[in-house]
Amino acid sequence: MGRTIVAVLVGVISAWVVIMLFEFAGASVYPPPPGSDLGDPAQLRAYIASAPAAAMSFVLAGWAAGAFLGGWVAAKLAHRHRLGAALAVGAMVLAGVVANAMMIPHPPWFTVLGLLLPLPAAWLAARLVPRVET
User: What is the residue extent of each domain of the chain?
Assistant: First the structure.
């Protein structure tokens, strides 16, 4: 059980790193307007409302890729509870999506895809990890 908990923690950290990399990449390709303070909730809402779909796609891809890689790492490390560990990581990414959607208004298509992608991505990752005989 302890190995599974550590696997989930490492998977969540891996997912977070991947998500941040995608978000930084998206911000470099589609930077906010000069002088923007995205720490200000009103400016952040305005930026998201005007962001092109391609910019928003970086975030969605990050959530899916983070759930996938984090789920794969968790499944690889967990050994006995591979699927559960991967889905736990996917659930944590999903919780982040929900929190993000509650704090910042997004286009409906973005929210729906954000809710639909993390768990299947984590499930697929667990299915791709080869079984280990213990």
Answer: 2-28+40-128
Residues 28 and 83: their CA atoms lie apart, in Å, by 35
Selection from 65, 85, 105, 117 nearest residue 11 by Cα:
85
Q: What is the pLDDT of residues 25-72, one digit of tens each?
A: 998 998 888 888 878 888 888 888 888 889 999 999 999 999 999 999
Q: What span, in angstroms and rounded, lies between the C-alpha atoms of 33 and 26?
A: 14
Q: How far is CA 30 from the centre of its chain?
A: 19
The pLDDT tens digits for 88-113 are 999 999 999 999 999 888 889 999 99
Contact 71, 11 (CB under 8 A): yes
Cβ atoms within 10 A of the Cβ of 87, count?
23
